[in-house]
Amino acid sequence: MNPADLQGLRSGSLETREAHLTLLLDRARTHGDESAIAALHALVRDYRDFHRSLYSRAMNHADVFADASLQEPLLAALADTRYNCQAWAVMGCTAMEIRAAVPQLVTLLDHPQWLVRGETVTALSALGDASVVPALRPLLSDEADWLRQRTADALAHIGGDAALEALWYEFEHRQFPRIGYIASTLALFTPEVVPRLLTAADSTDPDQRYWAAVALGSTGDDQAIPTLERLMATDRGVTVFDGEVRTAAKKALRTLRRIKAAIAERDAAKPEPAPH
Fold it and tell me: Which end of the chain is more exposed for a tag (fewer CB within 10 A), N or C?
């Protein structure tokens, strides 16, 4: 490593050091510059010796210099409340696929800083498995809409029975009037969720019929077409936020047909298998 690359992160005004960091990241990204990457690794390993601004800015681009050898300092930074860069340490763990961080990440889900909680949900989506679903599930009740949505996305990405049950519970026991994020993530559990949604489309609750229609449209499943057509033609139900079930069904049919058309187009573009 060129000593000047590291020195530029240590000396000068903060503005100068931030500009130097930007150059290092650019060299690492554009040219795979080994000296720049080594300096960035030093920033992560000895993070307490550097300004928090440099650490956080570097971690926003952690994929540029990701290296499994940085696991130990990243795990240390996750627990370091004095340095106060836990959210960015979480980003680093995600970019570097450090699955050993999962137990610590679970403890950060109730962190007082919203940024830490949000990045932790994203990290667990990438690094976690079914074992983290019980820890994520309570965040579907969070007052922050964006965090509920991010949690639903994480559960869908993790997949499995426990994640499906967590999302389905929120679908059935609606805590918030607008749950489009629940409907869209449930659709990702096709085909097993389709019979449940078809049953929900016959509910006496217009809100449940509304969101069942939304979810059915996003499945792209042919089984949903007769139910959506029926809802569009006959359902005059109105939700608590003045949404019409028939309108939701009409939009869902359009969505379903777009999905089917995209699938057909993709399949048509696939090359024919070579003859044996």
Answer: C
